[in-house]
Amino acid sequence: AKELAVQNAVRDMIRDGIIRSAHDCSEGGLAVNLAESCMGGNLGAKTAIPGTRADVALFNESQSRIVITFAPRHASEILDFLKSRSIPHTRLGEVVKAPTLTIEATGKTFA
After folding, report:
1. Segment 97-110, tens digit of pLDDT
2. Rounded to the nearest 5 degrees, what angle is found at the Cα of 15, between the Cα atoms of 21 and 83?
3. What pTM does this model have?
4. CA distance to 33, 35, 87, 99, per residue, from 40 (Å)
């Protein structure tokens, strides 16, 4: 049920044209997701990942996790939409023009 709710929410935001990209965390976890997303768009990202262990926060391949990107002007709309559907979510950071990825997790910075 959770996976279906997440997939439906992302699909609806795509249809509404309010997200720029969506990429799941199934192969390699969040760190691999972010790296692939940056390489694919020749962009970078600055992120702060919550969690108590960096290895779990960065490489956990649990289901129903999708990283989406969107224009800053859509942030409130998207966060309100996810909340209204009871979709767990966390704002991780921002896309940057320089093709570098910086991840802060558990008090450590990985670049």
Report:
1. 999 999 998 888 98
2. 75
3. 0.87
4. 11, 9, 26, 10
